[in-house]
Amino acid sequence: MSTHLDDVKKYAKKPVNEAAVAGLEKTYRLVLSKPDTRFVACSDKAELETVRKNFLEKKLGLSGDALDASIKDVCMTMKASRSKSRLTFCYLLAEHHGKLDAFA
User: Fold this and answer.
1) Which pairs count as long-range contacts for 74-79, CB under 8 Å and 24+ apart, including other chains?
2) End-to-end C-alpha distance for the chain, whole angstroms
3) Could you tell me which of 60, 64, 51 has the C-alpha nearest to residue 94?
4) What's the rounded Cα separation, in Å, for the pair 6 and 84?
């Protein structure tokens, strides 16, 4: 977990919830093990739509126009990284929407 935790610490705005990182890692273990799904491509609209539908709407139960803005914010936060870790991306979205407890 330390690799994911270190990556989250680079971008998180608040102290990192280590239990949430562990929960995300457990929940998305299969996704994180595959090279083609381990990262989020902010330049791919279909990828961002998948993040919106599968993570924000289905997993976190969110809806509304603010979801796209939060995805853009996370893309901007992580823009320095060419390989945006899916776990970090999801953590930052959950943090933004106050939903880290869903994974802790």
Assistant:
1) 75/42, 75/48, 77/11, 78/11, 78/42, 79/42
2) 14
3) 60
4) 13
* Tens-place pLDDT, residues 38-68: 999 999 999 999 999 999 999 999 999 899 9
Residue 2 confidence (pLDDT) above 90 = no
Q: Quick one: which of 49, 45, 35, 32 has its CA closest to 86?
A: 32
CA 47 – CA 33 distance, rounded (Å): 17
**Block residue for tokens 């929407």:** 97
Position 93, amino acid: L
Give this prediction's pTM.
0.94
